[in-house]
Every structure is written in structure tokens, then in C-alpha cells.
Amino acid sequence: MLVLRHASAGTRLSSAEIDRWRRLDESGRGVARQLVWAFADREITRVVSSPLARCVESVVPLAQSRGLVVEQRWELAPDVELDDLRAVLVDLPETSLVCTHREVFLKLLGPEGTCEKGGAWVIERSGPELVPALYLEPPVPAGVPRQAYSTA
Questions:
Q1: The whole model's pTM is what?
Q2: Inter-CA distances, 140 with 56, 65, 76, 78, 113, Å
Q3: 22: burial class by Cβ within 10 Å (0-12, 13-18, 19+)?
Q4: In the chain, N or C terminus with fewer CB closer than 10 Å?
């Protein structure tokens, strides 16, 4: 399973309620388009996302390129409880792409599970456990040298 952190969406807004509507910035839209090519060699049969705009926008180009619908789940939002998150992830097929937030990565993987905006972890199942197997760096938007691209 691929677990993706949403692409760049600019600066966090003044309150959590207002911030829910923050959309991708220009760089983030470029990364979202590049994800189509970055994951071209991976089997993806479902695309599941936090319903927050920046997550949905991060995976729409990839989902459209494969004729898939983006399924939105509140259990992938930043303030999710770990048990609710695990329940969703365990039920998804291994060929799923899941888009979520930094806070979710920290809950799921702990401090060693950091993830850049637009980056992803390959998560494998070991019985009921979810194990981070491989980190995939975010794609660089077209025309931007990697050393000049910041995803902090």
C-alpha cells in the first residue's frame, strides 16, 4: 500500500476549521501532476483520501489517469484517532494509494516516519501490523532542479 502525504499547500491558515479548505499551491499542483508518472509502474486499484481539499487535489490527476474515483474518508483527516486510522488501512487492498497528512504519519509511524510533502511510504502488512517498508521521495515539478525544490 502506498501512503502519500499531500503535496504543498502553502502556509497553514489561522484556525483548524478554516485550514480544512486550504488548497494546493502552484508547486503542489505540479507535484500532483508528476505523481501520475512517479507511480506509473505501481499497481493502484483504489485511491482513498482525507476529504480535505489539499489531499483530494493531490491524487485527482493520478486517479483520473487510471479511471478511478477518489474515495474520501474522514478517518484520514489530521485529527483522526489511531484506532480509526488503522481500521481503515487494514481493510484496504494492498494495491491502494492513500493520501493523508503529516499528523497522521506521526501517529502511524512515530517520529521516524517523517514524510515530505508529496512523498510516500510503501506500507506492508505483517499480520495485523502495518510496517513501513520503503520511503519514496516526492517527485520534482517539471522544470525545477531537485536541489532548488523545497518540500519542508
A1: 0.88
A2: 19, 19, 25, 25, 21
A3: middle
A4: C
